Amino acid sequence: MGSVEPQASVEAKLNSGGQIVVNADSQEVRHEVSREVTDGFHLVIDALKLNGIDTIFGLPGIPITDFARKAQAEGMRVISFRHEQNAGNAAAVAGFLTQKPGICLTVSAPGFLNGLTALTNATTNCFPMILISGSSEREIVDLQQGDYEEMDQLAIAKPLCKAAFRVLHAEDIGVGIARAIRAALSGRPGGVYLDLPAKLFAQTMDAETGRKSLIKVVDPAPQQIPGADAVMRAVDLLKGAKRPLIVLGKGAAYAQADAGIRALIEKTGIPYLPMSMAKGLLPDTHELCASAARSFVLPGADVVMLIGARLNWLLSHGKGKTWGGKTHKDWGGQKFIQIDISPQEADSNVRIDAPLVGDIGSCVSALLAAIESTAGSNWAKPPAEWTGAIAERKNKNVAKMAETLARNPVPMNFHSALAVVRDIIKANPDAILVNEGANALDFTRSIVDMVKPRKRLDVGTWGIMGIGMGFSVAAAIVSGEPVIAIEGDSAFGFSGMEVETLCRYNLPVCVVVLNNNGVYGGTDVNPTGGPDAAPTVFVKGARYDKMMEAFGGVGVHATTPAELRKAMEEALRSKKPTLINAVIDETAGTESGRITSLNPSAKKK
Ligand code: ADP
What is the CA radius of gyration of the chain? Predict the structure, then answer.
């Protein structure tokens, strides 16, 4: 023992549970102490797992690479993307589908900013999501001394999401995650930013103390029961209605109150109109579905009950010609009942005569109970004059559509291609349909019937492009069901690189690119005769199918409905990632799809 070290030699290593075991072997003390230590990495992972969160969507890099590795080592699913916006969109839609906040993990500044678009979009759509970004050293950021990827991320995120938090100390991780979960899920769901500085991950603390600091959130989305007077106000309005209508929004789809909503509609016999992501809450083929008579029921209704749908631009703000007003500012004279979890939503565009504030499940049950107790089996269904007129209009429009769908033009157009998609979805009702584009979106929404809830995921409240592959990856991962993504060629470009992700995880996703050579179409020419292509056109005859082949997936070039059908059927059978380049007439489609009126130049015409 001639070379006795004056100090204790301390050796730390991770044990199988992820905690650091410290062996302090001091020559002076002459005995060995062993205690368990944990660190920031493991506290975050344990806090998420404790709250039933088992999947992270993200993109590794400094300072969260090791976090991603450790999360996977601890049994979480860590799904890596090629761009953070796609990972963020995946997290957002996972939140919508599961009612648990979807987690997106990014690096600092640029990665954070890429994820922020998705976080803001999630908030706009009322999807619960948590964006977790690593960040640089606070002391340097606050003094603006130029750290690696320096950015005051918390300040930037704050106005763009529902809540934003930063955790500086390992012992606060439990609280930080709990607050993020509550903020994302309670009340109106939305996006939350959680800022985790690089230094936090390496902080260590006693494992037992760490364990005790974690919080399993109790009842993160508490029931909100509507007031009895508010319920009666709504029932009275419905009772007096001659031409009632129910509008179902994606809040109703999110709420998973499917049986209650169906019971309410069938008990009252009130026709309903699903917003695009509420399609399938009741089958689109249901006799009370008024989708095919939209332009008749909106101006014609006298009492409209909104269930988880806002009167925003998608519903022409509840006024104007869509609602029977004489000018675009006129109210149509309808009375509105609005079921929403947000007490501030009512009156945001027009007067809401009967606001019903609460969670949709509780509100619908309360309405059913009130209807039962006041009218029982004597509830008067809407007059046949109203339902008959709707049925007549529906039948006419459905017949007209059937005629269009039966045509088989060369080259294919949106209708002949989507007639195939319609059949495929009918035969595979569990498949999830992801849909984005302009014309590709509008035509798919109106042509393809959905028969089950939460099977249609699309561009949502902003009409955003770029959700396609992020949504597809998440839908396949969280549902285990096949996914069919119907993409405009322009929309696909925003997230197209994620076909590699589809192949890497071998996901049962069939992407159909409706390829008409450009944004809206491929016919624009540069009026100057100069060498640059017109701003809306792409390379003609592009072969998007080759992109999928590059990563080992199946690529198919389809020029006829028969080829498209065969390829889609094979994709569903094989469950292999597949991309079908469906060649569409480049003159098919209209400028801006159905929202041409929002285009300033179109307005002038
Ligand atoms: P859409 O675009 O389909 O019309 P919106 O996104 O405009 O639907 O509206 C969704 C609405 O649903 C939001 O106002 C939101 O507050 C509400 N909402 C979301 N979840 C619930 C819930 N569980 N209970 C009640 N309302 C909800």
Answer: 27
User: How far is 246 from 265, CA to CA, in rounded Å?
Assistant: 8
Do 95 and 183 share a structural domain? yes
C-alpha closest to that of 476 among 511, 433, 507: 507
Q: What pLDDT band is residue 376 in, cutting at 50, 70 and 90?
A: confident
The verdict on 173 and 188 lying in the same domain is yes
Residues 195 and 242 in one domain: no
| Structural tokens at position 475 | 């839908």
* Residue 345 CA to ligand 1 centre (angstroms): 10
* Within a domain: 220: no
Structure token digits, residue 473: 């990856």
Query: Residues 44, 173: one domain?
Result: yes
251 Cα: distance to centroid of ligand 1 (angstroms): 3
SS3 content of the chain, % helix, strand, coil (to 5): 45, 20, 35
Ligand 1 pocket mutation, candidates 126, 306, 364, criterion most atoms within 8 A of CB: 126
Q: Is residue 328 part of a domain?
A: yes
Residue 564, amino acid: L
Q: Verify that 76 and 197 share a domain, yes or no.
A: yes
- CB contact at 8 A, 577 and 548: yes
The pLDDT score that the predictor gives to residue 258 is 98
Domain for residue 598, yes or no?
no
1 has a pLDDT exceeding 50? no
Which domain range does residue 278 map to? 228-391
- pTM (2 d.p.): 0.94
In this structure, the answer to whether residues 97 and 180 fall within a common structural domain is: yes
The helix/strand/coil state of 241 is coil
Q: Is 399 within a domain?
A: no
CA–CA–CA angle 55, 57, 62 (5° rounding): 120
φ and ψ at 461, to 5 degrees?
A: -60, -35
Q: Are 351 and 462 part of one and the same domain?
A: no
Phi, psi (5° rounding) for residue 80?
Answer: -95, 135
User: Which atom of ligand 1 is least distant from the CA of 255?
Assistant: 23
Q: Name the domain count of the chain.
A: 4
For tokens 């109703």, the residue is 252
Determine the distance separating the centroid of ligand 1 and the alpha carbon of 9, expressed in angstroms: 59
